[in-house]
Amino acid sequence: YRRLHTTETRLSEFNQTEIKAMLGSYTKVLFVRDPFHRLIATFLQGMSISPSFSSFVQEVLDSGTRNGRVAWKPLVNLCQPCLIQYDYVVMFGFLRQELGHLLRRAGLLAGSLLPELTDSQVQWTYRWLSEQMFSELSAHQKKQLSHFYRLDLAAFPFSSSFLSD
């Protein structure tokens, strides 16, 4: 395909025939993460100048889905799971199990290629962080965040998310 090997070629730059041919010839994998965990990670990585998590969340809410940064935009807006039929959806927190399955399906030796992933420790840490960070938010911010990420929460099984209620 033309422009296939250029950096950051967007799918929208191809015509419909090329898009259909490409999507039909690739194994499509979507990696998803609880939206509240994505917010926490973004805040902790210093991708915001906000002094507190609450003010960072307000910055996210004020930016909206159109003007927001990729780091916190809803996944449904970024990955179009309703338009693209992904072959696999891999949930953060279950990476070792799910990546092992993907590698075996591809005919590769999963054990030798997988890094050490401690999913249970990651889940415990994010549960603790979520409790701490969620308690900093006002009831109005919690409601707004749930609305902001409502399509992600409907599309993916984030049943233990603090934003699901």
Describe the overall structure:
It is a single-pass type II membrane protein. One of its GO terms (cellular component) is Golgi membrane. InterPro entries: Carb_sulfotrans_8-10, Sulfotransferase. This protein is mostly helical and 165 residues long. The chain has one domain (11-155). Helix content is 53%, strand content 5%. It has nine helices and two strands; from the N terminus they run αβαααβααααα. It is globular and about 45 Å long. It starts with 15 loop residues before the first helix and ends in a 10-residue tail after the last helix. The model has no long low-confidence stretch (mean pLDDT 82).
Main attributes of the structure:
sulfotransferase activity, mainly alpha, Carbohydrate sulfotransferase, transmembrane helix, Carb_sulfotrans_8-10, golgi apparatus, single chain, 165 residues, two-stranded parallel sheet, globular
